[in-house]
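Final paragraph of the annual report: two paired records, presented back to back.
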Amino acid sequence: MPHALTRRIPLLLALIALLAGLVAVVSAPRPAQAAPATFAHPGVLVSRAQLDFVRGKVNANAQPWRAAYDQMFASRYASLTRAAHPRSVVECGSYSNPNYGCTDEREDAIAAYTMALIWYITRDSRYATKAIEIMDAWSAVITDHTNSNAPLQTAWAGSTWPRAAEIIRYTYTSWPNVNRFATMLRNVYLPEVVNGNTTSNGNWDMSMMEATLGIAVFLEDRTSYDKAVTRFRNRMRAYFYLATDGSVPYGPGGGIDTPSEIISYWQGQSTFVDGLSQETCRDFTHTGYGIASASHIAETSRIQGQDLWPEFTDRLRHTLGFHAKYQLGTAVPSWLCGGSLTLGLGPVTEVGFNALNFRLGIGMTNTQTLTLNQRPAGTNNLFVAWETLTHAANPA
């Protein structure tokens, strides 16, 4: 009998190992799946439930939403006399030099989004009509983006247009040219952004994936949605560092793979700590663009029922806290960017702070201080706009 038991021990151990493996698989966090079976609308950055929450707060004169609304309403983007300035070909060089339609396109997109928000909150149809007028003006004319900044320009405008379009299409009574607008997004914007940009600074890829995701929601394009999420997952690891990544960050690919190549790509920074970004040592402004797009992508995925926030909680909370600390004035150590930082994070913390602190209950002291200090957060006049209004303490 002991001899028979001895023969069974390896089998029992193998069975125990198999069961342990199955438990680990079941209990391990599962990455969010990509495209939903049914898309939620409006569903780019803000949902109907979030909009209803904001509308109730503004109409009750509750703070900080009322002050944020008043700030938006007083801006040039809310003027009913605004005239759109569409161009057939938008040409944008480095830092928008030359600037043939670059500012006009970005700001008209922000204006359309602004008008859409005012329409939803006030139910004044003049603002819905003006949003439609602006979107129709561009969809009737634009055919291309050119020059070196074309991918980024397309991404910035392409991130904002779907926010406006989703609100108008799904909450207003009539938009006769909606299909022409959809064709514009499909033919002019999506091809420029859907494949991303591996070797440029990471804010480009983040912005391009934000635009791709928003356009995919509006078009109900599951293939493009899935592609955006896959690229986003890869770029997150190559843009925001965690110690669990190893001694150096992940490379973005495109021939940037060895430790020395990665350090060079990270602006020469060779000491890596939780929350550091690939562009931290470049400047906080461009880093802020990446933070904003990452937060927007995660928020849109949550609205669509494929929540990416849990998957990137640690990466984003450390990134927000790290940059908020130095933006607030903490002395810069010598190992970080040679002891000197170029600040200017921008109005980019509200969406991440709301998701991680308010909804998930994660303590974020520095991010909280900076977010409250910056309220009401306005717009960077590129693709970030009115996020105290839309995302401050928004539980929806």
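The closing record of the year follows.
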Amino acid sequence: MLLTLTTTHQPATDLGHLLVKHPDRVQEFDLPTGTAHVFYPEATAQRCTAALLVEVDPQRLGVGRRRAASTPESFTLGQYVNDRAYAASSLLSSALSTVFRSALRGVSRDRPELAGSAIPLSIRVPVLRCRGGADLAVRLFTPLGWTVTAAPLPLDEQHPEWGDSRYVDLCLTGTVRLADALNHLYVLLPVLDDAKHYWVAPDEIDKLLRAGAGWLADHPERALITRRYLAHRRALAGQAMARLAELRLADVPVPDDSVDGATGPADGATPVADPRRASLAVRRREAVLAALAASGATRVVDLGCGGGALLTALLADRRYTEVVGVDVSTQALTVAARRLRLDRLPQRQQDRVRLWQSALTYRDDRLRGYDAAVLMEVVEHLDPARLPALEDAVLGHARPGTLVVTTPNAEYNVRYEGLPAGRFRHPDHRFEWTRAEFAAWVDRVAADHGYTATISGVGDHDPELGHPTQLAVLTAVASRETTR
């Protein structure tokens, strides 16, 4: 079975650094079920392709396995008479986790910034067993920002009247972080195959949620993905769905009110946009990360961190030596700890992370002196009367070197189908500002507390209404003598 990864990011040979596989060498890896080979059919500064070729050993495939009676190879000669040698399946997913382990985690010693950035990618799996047909492949990958081509393969090219086989030629193109792309494949290849080659134990739930962090909880097909990934084991699927529901609940401060995403705003509002685009939640997170990187911060506190989506991205970037998540909800902090896998991280990684329960409207000495702080989709969850307390606690007392704030643009709400006039994007919002209202607030708090400020937007720009998300970056001035 074969999978190819191609990028035109320049220099394209940086793909070798991200995969930790040198383009000038053919590398071989022993697997429990065979052998994997990594090589580069092309490697230039303009275009680079890495290929993963997996050779399955039928004898090893059948040794020491517990197999459910419903799997296609459960008859006596099944380990020899099957399609596993050439059709991509859960075997390819397992090979990805073994061969590209660092890349799956988003870790690159030589190119850490690139590992955290979206790059142009083209992925091809020429023979993929797809139970549900090409349409299912499109439904699974499109909401993740991919342009999908899934061409059914004929049973016999010489006899087109026989119809299509259960296999597709899958091609994905998009601008995606490499780690995200590999995790999409790691989860969805066995889902499309719908027949795992190994026994599914309870720890598979953790694997699923770890690989699905940041996208699975909001995927429109999350129930199907969960059920198939866990081999239709109802009890495990139920546990996984419950944990996904916790993630969605804990991420209330960062609702997916995307005009571009696969899921729309709360209360049935549905945006009109291309579903192949990355969701606004993802684009917002990327914009915040870019602002933090530009500030030069190394010690960052995420105020109102929710379930830890931003914390996960911060921890994956080695430039940040200290990452703090703060939330008033202990449940949210529990979910964040689970998402970050704090109990499994090496000690040096654990030392970089802190999770603190605290109300953002009260002064907290622990929050003083950080290089940067983030209020991502938080301020609109406070009653307007409590905003002065937030301003004093964050800008007056904690006083980070940089503060990044995002909030919805109320003017853009008319672009959401099904969102009644005068209604907010999320039921917990206490207000939503127009662009003028947000600019006035930013200018006032910056002047009151000795900061300069810039305002921009996130998401597709509407010439009349602006961006769906408003973003401000406040930077502390060197001296506060003139601010009091």
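The radius of gyration is 24 Å. This concludes the annual technical report; the extension proposal builds directly on these records.
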